[in-house]
TrEMBL record:
Pfam families (alphabetical): GST_C, GST_N
Name of the protein in its database record: Thiol:disulfide oxidoreductase
Record family assignment: Belongs to the GST superfamily.
Residue ranges annotated for the GST N-terminal domain, each copy included: 1-87
InterPro entries for the chain: Glutathione-S-Trfase_C-like (IPR010987), Glutathione-S-Trfase_C_sf (IPR036282), Glutathione_S-Trfase (IPR040079), Glutathione_S-Trfase_N (IPR004045), GST_C (IPR004046), Thioredoxin-like_sf (IPR036249)
Domain GST C-terminal: 90-212
Length: 235
């Protein structure tokens, strides 16, 4: 039913978490971003930002032609609306969940991603950049911790697509130089989600897409992953 264009990264795991929770049939279409699969013309035809994940829904709700969706947040919204799951129907609940979903997409993901880049992958150590993004990641963890002090989940009382969006970006907290012991409410939330059967299954299946545990980022793949420009898409 769903073709999932995927590689086991935080954004990729968001979608497998949802699909495993709702039990929709899906098949993996591996996009090895370290090898440049994201630049293949057939992928760019429906994922123009040359990023995964993306999906093709072969059984859309309107019964028409298959629907393609790119961008992880848009995919989560699409699937939540398709299934009626993990997104409140009432206007206030929906508003809150979408706030935290967009907070992750616009804040936690990009800032943690820059943290990863400058701390782990940059060819030279730039203390200002490292400090800036480690601290900003820390600030965002604090935002979550404060929210979760009064709420079981980011959207409120119920698990939602906001939690599915944020969780994979907290999984590599040690690489981000963050200590979950400093954020007790976030730590409680993190371990509750980690223990969900659908999350366990999603990560197991995701890891199997890269069975040799091939490093996504190495000296060769850095040439593909970093330093892209508009010219990259013209090749």
């Amino acid at each position: 039913m769903i073709d999932l264009y995927f590689w086991p990264t935080p954004n990729g795991h968001k979608i497998t978490m949802f699909l495993e929770e709702v039990g929709l049939d899906y098949s993996f279409k591996p996009v090895n971003i370290g090898a440049g699969d994201q630049f293949k013309p057939e992928f760019l035809a429906f994922s123009p930002n040359n990023r995964m994940p993306a999906i093709i829904d072969h059984a859309p709700a309107d019964g028409g032609e298959p629907i393609t969706v790119f961008e992880s947040g848009a995919i989560l919204l699409y699937l939540a609306e398709k299934t009626g799951r993990f997104l409140p129907a009432d206007v206030r609940g929906r508003k809150t969940v979408t706030e935290w979903l967009f907070w992750q997409i616009g804040g936690l993901g990009p800032m943690a991603g820059q943290n990863h880049h400058f701390v782990q992958y940059a060819p030279e150590r730039i203390p200002y950049a490292m400090d800036r993004y480690v601290k900003e990641t820390n600030r965002l963890y604090g935002v979550m911790d404060k929210r979760l002090a009064a709420n079981e989940f980011l959207g409120g009382a119920d698990y939602s697509i906001a939690d599915m969006a944020a969780y994979p970006w907290v999984v590599p907290h040690e690489r981000q130089q963050q200590n979950l012991d400093d954020f007790p409410n976030l730590k409680r939330w993190f371990h509750a989600i980690k223990a969900r059967p659908a999350v366990i299954c999603a990560y197991e299946k995701g890891s199997a897409v890269n069975p040799s545990n091939q490093a996504t980022v190495n000296d060769e793949s850095k040439k593909i992953l970093f330093g892209q420009s508009a010219e990259t898409l013209k090749r």
